[in-house]
């Protein structure tokens, strides 16, 4: 099902992130990244919202590729569950996120 597909995508994102994270010049930011990745890998933090988790991972990968970390990855994640990624963060995706706008309006 779609869960397996999202999990596979997530695994690929983690693999892609590793080399960028290891060569990231700022040690503090590297440590923050490690904590974020740990949180994203934690089912208790992400719950069943794999799509949201993957979006966080994609934004983090995008920032690591540029070598510039921005909010929320400039500090350690808050305790508790993973918040829904803010809509403005979708500017970080190369491809437009289909359905993001539609999902927001029917809440």
From TrEMBL:
Q: Where is the DUF4485 domain?
A: 6-87
- Domain of life of the organism in this record? Eukaryota
**Protein name in the entry:** Centrosomal protein 112kDa
């Amino acid at each position: 099902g779609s869960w397996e597909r999202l999990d596979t995508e997530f695994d690929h994102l983690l693999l892609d992130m590793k080399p960028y994270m290891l060569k990231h010049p700022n040690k503090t930011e590297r440590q923050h990244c490690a904590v974020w990745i740990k949180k994203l890998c934690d089912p208790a933090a992400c719950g069943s919202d794999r799509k949201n988790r993957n979006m966080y991972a994609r934004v983090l990968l995008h920032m690591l590729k540029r070598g510039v970390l921005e909010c929320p990855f400039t500090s350690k994640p808050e305790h508790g569950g993973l918040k829904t990624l803010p809509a403005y963060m979708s500017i970080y995706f190369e491809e437009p996120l289909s359905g993001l706008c539609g999902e927001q309006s029917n809440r």
